[in-house]
Amino acid sequence: MPKHAELHLEGKSYSLPVLIGSENEKAIDISQLRAETGYITLDHGYGNTGSCTSKITYIDGEKGILRYRGIPIEQLAEQSNFVETSYLLIYGTLPNKLELENFSHTLSHHSLIHEDMLRFYDGYPSTAHPMAILASMVCSLSAYYPDSLNPTDPAQVDQLIPRALSKLRTIAAYSYKKSIGQPVIYPNNSLGFCANFLSMMFAVPSEKYEIDEDIVGALEMLLILHADHEQNCSTSTVRLVGSSLANLFASISAGISALWGPLHGGANQAVMEMLRQIHSNGGDVAAAIKAAKDKENPFRLMGFGHRIYKNYDPRAKIIKKHCDKILSKLKIKDPLLDIAKRLEEAALEDSYFVEKKLYPNVDFYSGVIYQAMGIPMNMYTVMFALGRLPGWIAHWKEMHDQGGNKIGRPRQVYEGEVLTNYRPLAERK
Ligand code: ACO
Known about the structure:
The protein has helices at 33-37, 73-79, 82-91, 97-109, 117-122, 130-140, 154-179, 193-202, 213-226, 233-243, 248-260, 267-280, 285-293, 314-329, 335-348, 351-355, 363-372, 380-401, and strands spanning 4-9, 12-20, 26-28, 57-60, 65-68, 71-72.
């Protein structure tokens, strides 16, 4: 493997260091490029740009591989739970029994939010999207913990991490309760992380709430699958905001906003909207495929395609496998699952999708399970945020732990007006 790459520019040669990752990922280190040559690189959408080195998550998009801290996602989805996977991502290793108990206990301990924050919900219209509420409420948490916001103090960061994980869950559930006009249900710390969330979502004070272990298991699996995906749009946002030494809550709030977009985490809601639309049009999947291929039509097959995966997204494979199992356990027959499967089959046989290597991504089947669990469509992206939170935290922490923090600040190639004199208003036409 070469140790350097040669760059020839304006008659001069430059030697750029080559970096090889532990899975043989190759990079050319251009950190001195501008200083030495006066040039920068231009990379719209950062498809060729590594912004950091990281030890958290490995993806091979060509082979459809995803591993957290080296462990295949398939093993974690089958054998782990969300709390344990969160610990793995954030602290680097699987916890031993005591570490796991302590971590779970700390998460439970921090499950309440300040009572004053409950009043914030009253200020939102009942039609507010829960992602708008989530982003604002998470940023507002900064106001309540002024003594532990310093990202360069490991003791303060350690205090803040379980708070973030536990309180985001509570905020998410409360935002749903508020949106349907039900009283909020306080956390029940005798329950596990996911069961506690379901109780806050679906219990009412007037009735006993029975926890369905199948639903808890499905939620654990979905949250694990969403827990990290290296330098995606929202995680890069969290890192970029964090690089300015913004506190953890502010950085996560920015990540939530990035996740909301339909090209990122918002796609799970968009998929269900699309499936419902196809269903109401008589289930005509061929028409949807045709529209997605039409360059004059802005419609895209939501839940299809990925910047990194040029093969089946391993997360979609796991979710698809569980869809039938979970729906039949819950005795639900959902025509949308049937449409999703037919859509996938048609797309994977179509040369447009085959040639562009467009496969179902994590969002394609997740909505079908969320729907079966009784989670409303506008909460799907909130569920994604809940799942992605340990990943955001892990990356934010890793960036600070690595030391030598540099504020993230890309450059540009300016294409605007050259020097132009100011013209007073009276002289302008
Ligand atoms: N339907 C139809 N055509 C598509 C789709 C799609 N879902 N996705 C990509 N294409 C086409 C594009 O039109 C483009 O065609 P062209 O080369 O003829 O212009 C080509 O495939 C490459 O697409 P890009 O948008 O350039 O690929 P990019 O890597 O930038 O985008 C993305 C990836 C945003 C995920 C894209 O595939 C997409 O919009 N998918 C639908 C939205 C979605 O499911 N997002 C969730 C992603 S997973 C996540 O964030 C959790």
